[in-house]
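Supplementary Note 3. Input sequence used for the single-chain structure prediction.
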Amino acid sequence: MEYWTERQLSSIDKMLNPRSIAVVGATERMQYGGRFLRSVLTAGDQVSVYPVNPRYDELMGLQCYPSVTDLPESPDLVGIIVPYQRVIPVLTESAEKGAGSAIVISAGFAERAEEDRRLLQVDLGNVARETGVRISGPNCLGLANVKSGIWACSSSSSVFEKLNTGNIGLVCQSGASAFGPFLSRAISRGIGYSYIISTGNEADLEASDFARYLLDDDDTKVIAMFVEGFKDARKFLEVCRLAAQKGKPIVLIKIGRSGLGARAAQAHTASLTGEDAAYNAAFKQHGVTRVSDWDQLLEVSQMLADSPAPSEPGIAVISHSGGVCSLTADAFGHEGLDLPELSDESRDTINEILAGFGWAGNPADITGHASRDTVELIMETLISEPKVGALVVASSASNEQSEHVVDVADRHDKAVAYLHTGNELGEPTGLDTLKSAGIPVFFSPENLASAFRKLHDYHNWRERRLNIGFGATTAMSDAQQSIADDLRAVGRTKLSECERKRLLAGWGVATEESATSGTEVVISVKRDDQLGPVLMYGMGGIFADMAAEVTLRVCPISKQDAQDMVNEVAGSRILIGSNGRPKADVDSLINTLVRVSELAVNLEGIIDEININPLIVLPRGQGVKVLEAVITLSHQQ
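The predicted structure, written as discrete structure tokens, is reproduced below.
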């Protein structure tokens, strides 16, 4: 499916890179209309600004126009800040004037949970798509092209100029979060953005559409997202597939993990949060780095944006404190990361510098040398170790030490991160030096270790995914198409045994005989409203209680996905043979998972649910057999 057109992406480009902006609902008061006008004026001469409000002749030193149709040119972007019932007429006038795009700040639509407001939002989206004046919003705060200094937003913040230009593109459904904690925390950490985009209720353009645009932006290396719910989750997964090809990580907060979070999201932007377990599976399958809070989103995004792919799995840690060394080592160990032992040559070099103090190991406790010029040689020795792919310095960031860290980082194509153990709010330190050089700075060992884990996981995933590809389905054969046609004619939701056998056999899943030995497993498919068919695998029979966990994947899956599913369920070790049991036909199990996945995709809209319980995995070379299966047809077929 083709989700994006050139015209759509062109409209987003005009929205993010406008040369002329009309502000409909501009006012002298510092409410939403006044703040939007004040914000766009900070762009200076690079943007022509046109206030629109029939109540004024002049605003903030600019001529004010009665309506969009009275403007001297067709604006690239129209900021719409009027009562909700006036939004569609203003958008229609903007289309008549030839406007390129619009941001609807106005609220009062689907987030009100009233049917007439929901329908009004549907109409708004339809008008945007029909006229080609694509919109962000309603119920958003706008956006910022940080790299060009264009702030088309109604944020009350007055610290725009303190934010660095960077290589992280932020796409956030919540405007107050985008221009609140994500802005203030980025400033305090020295983290820069290329763009900040709030999408609100997403009557037209979705977070996925803006993420797709950022994939083609050379100044954006990582896409950071705050999502309450997807209007079209499969469109997002297509963005993820494209992002993998381009090597642009997506770091995501997806709320709705709990019932309380899901209800809050519905009240805020009328979002559909979806089943969280299925989303977790989809994110893992598609290389999305999921985090849980603002700080993690910023820290992990910066780590992925500013750090090279690890050349080796090993990490070297250096600190002035043995206690900090131990605590940091524990955090790395908890994440399953490797702190390799040093070579004899490196240990001797560091011991000679320490002269009987500290500890020449990994982590290295270098005591007072952390504040001396000798720290640079110690760091150089550690980062040059052949098993080391990254260096961590845990200390209090003196000016001199920070300069040494930057010097070492500049000489090596390896990740360098800093764990700050001092007072962030105290006297000026070298933190600004580190931040300016793009050295990721952390303030807790746990967050540091978690970010390194995610750095390794992303690059390992991408390397493997590029080799194996994503799951894909082939067109149905004539025989399969005949089965599908017959199923559409069935006037009930449950299939008979004969119908079930014919259906499964049509996709190569054996069912015509009994099995006397083998291992029972369970395979099912359920349709998620957002993600489509979701495949589940787990152990069955007497082993179900031993390993109650199951694993999920969004269909279609690849053979490697199927192998991963088997590996992830601890009870699957029974299949490799133990306690006198013969080795099972795992290859046939993997093939069956792929075939059931393909069946679910081929017959989406016809089949609602598949439950194979049990599937008997026979000894190696003998295949698998379905003993029981329940297949439910869709009510909408």
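Residues 350 and 377 are 8 Å apart (CA to CA). Residues 258-274 have pLDDT under 50 and may be disordered.
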